[in-house]
Structures are given as C-alpha cells and as structure tokens.
C-alpha cells in the first residue's frame, strides 16, 4: 500500500475505506469485508452513527492495532473546548480503541477554535496521532492555520472528476496540509460511471471507471476513501496499484472539471443553518 507522510511525520495509507451512509446494521459486515480485502485505513464519524459497528469489526478482525489507521470526526453540536473532549471520549469508547490515528472537525461551523484547542491538547497527550479538518474552504483553512499552533494534517473535502479542487490542493501543499477526497465517485452524479472520457480510459487499461477515478486521485497525491457494501467492489477499488494513467489521460480527465460542488456549498447560508441544526444524541 502506498502511503503519504503527514506534516507531523505520521504515515497514512493513500487508499482507505469509508463508511458514510452505510447503515449501522450493515457496517460491521462491510468493514469486515474491507479489512479482508486488504484495507487498513477506516474512515467514520460521530454523525454517521456507526462507530460502534466499526469498532466491533476491528475487534473481531484480529488485526494488530498498529497496522490500522482509524479516522473519526467531531460534529458541530459537539463543538467547543469541553464538548470536543467529551465527544472524542465517546467516539473512542464506541470504537473500542485507546487512541485514534486521525480526528477531524467535520464541518467548519460552530466553535471551531474551541474544538481545535481541545484537539491540539489531545494530540499533545498522545491520544490522537494527527488532527485535521473536513469541508474547509481555503479562507477558513488559512484562518485556522494562522491563528493556532498546530497546522491541520488533513483537509477532507469533496473531490472527484467533476469538482477537482486543483487550487485548493495547491494551497494545501503550500501550507503542509494533505488533501483527502470524500465522494470520489460523485455518488454517480453526472453519469460518472458511463462518462465517455472515463469509459474510454478504463477500456484502454482493462479497468473499471471506478478504478480509473481512484487511480487518477492517487496519481494526484490525493488520499481517497471509497465506500461500498459489496465485497467484490471493495476488492476492485483496492486493485488500483498495477497500472498508471498517462499524462494525456490525466489531462483529459482534468477537462471534466466543472469547478462546482455537486452536493452543497459550505458557504451557502442556508446550508450552514441546515447543518448546524443537526444534533447528535449518544
């Protein structure tokens, strides 16, 4: 497995397994299948409400803890210095772990600064190996970096062929932040899986469109966490290290960029209010 080195020296697999939108009752089986397929990086969140199922799969796998890279996220309703510590402890308990590899602020709203102070302290205490953010646009990311001690190790953002985030990535490289993609397949929007450009490139390599998209992200040094509940698809998504896209193919995929989100804009006041209204109950 290819890895990236985060800004604090922590090593992170460039390809992992995400469990967003997998119902809790299906999550344990899905994570078990993913671990059997070879994945060692797992990405969940308090807001996904499936941390306990992820933890059960980890425990039953028998895989040594040091071989796994586990990420979870802090939700808006748990923001703030004291709340964030409580939320971290709750997530750790649900996962059945004694430490996390990566803890992210899930959304750039609420008391982000209080949360970050708590996360910096958790990092100093060795309870989480790296801390980062998710869904931060460049202005919010730079503001956080410039006014705090620890620079986020990761920024997990919507990144796929139709919203490629090139400028965002360039800024992150300058600031030492690793870009990570959520929604690499755009949830099939814009007919991604039958797109003519992606389909032609896939045929040329004897691969699937999904494999081409993952390979494209990996060649851009983007960490990616595809999701599936099908063991065969998990194995297919993992099998992306035996081919390489040409410069021409990378350029053709670059031409698919629309420059806009296919889901929601985190700078839209309505989206801010909608996300901020979601409360988690333990």
Automatic annotation (TrEMBL):
Q: Which PROSITE patterns match?
A: ALDOKETO_REDUCTASE_1, ALDOKETO_REDUCTASE_2
Q: Which UniProt keywords apply?
A: NADP, Oxidoreductase
Q: Name one Pfam family in it.
A: Aldo_ket_red
What sequence ranges are listed for the domain NADP-dependent oxidoreductase? 21-256
Domain of life according to the entry: Bacteria
Q: Does the keyword Oxidoreductase apply?
A: yes
Per the similarity annotation, which family is this? Belongs to the aldo/keto reductase family.
Q: Can you say what this protein is called?
A: Aldo/keto reductase
Species of origin: Nonomuraea rosea
């Amino acid at each position: 497995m290819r890895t990236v080195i985060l800004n604090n020296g922590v090593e992170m697999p460039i390809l992992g397994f995400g469990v967003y939108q997998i119902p809790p009752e299906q999550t344990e089986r899905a994570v078990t299948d993913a671990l059997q397929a070879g994945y060692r990086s797992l990405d969940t969140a308090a807001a996904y409400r499936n941390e306990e199922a992820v933890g059960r799969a980890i425990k039953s796998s028998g895989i040594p803890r040091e071989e796994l890279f586990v990420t979870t996220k802090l939700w808006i309703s748990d923001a703030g210095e004291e709340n964030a510590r409580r939320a971290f402890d709750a997530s750790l308990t649900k996962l059945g772990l004694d430490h996390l590899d990566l803890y992210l602020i899930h959304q750039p709203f609420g008391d982000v600064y209080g949360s970050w102070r708590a996360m910096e302290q958790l990092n100093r205490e060795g309870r989480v190996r790296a801390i980062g953010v998710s869904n931060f646009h460049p202005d919010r990311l730079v503001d956080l970096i410039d006014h705090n001690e620890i620079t986020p190790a990761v920024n997990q953002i919507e990144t796929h062929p139709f919203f490629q985030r090139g400028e965002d990535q360039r800024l992150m490289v300058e600031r030492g932040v690793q870009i990570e993609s959520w929604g690499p397949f755009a949830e099939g929007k814009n007919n991604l899986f039958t797109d003519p450009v992606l389909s032609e490139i896939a045929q040329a390599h004897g691969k699937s469109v999904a494999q081409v998209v993952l390979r494209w992200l990996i060649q851009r040094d983007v960490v990616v966490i595809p999701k599936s509940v099908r063991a065969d698809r998990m194995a297919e998504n993992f099998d992306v290290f035996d081919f390489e896209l040409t410069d021409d193919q990378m350029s053709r995929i670059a031409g698919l960029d629309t420059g806009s989100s296919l889901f929601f804009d985190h700078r839209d006041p309505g989206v801010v209010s909608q996300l901020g209204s979601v409360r988690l109950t333990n």
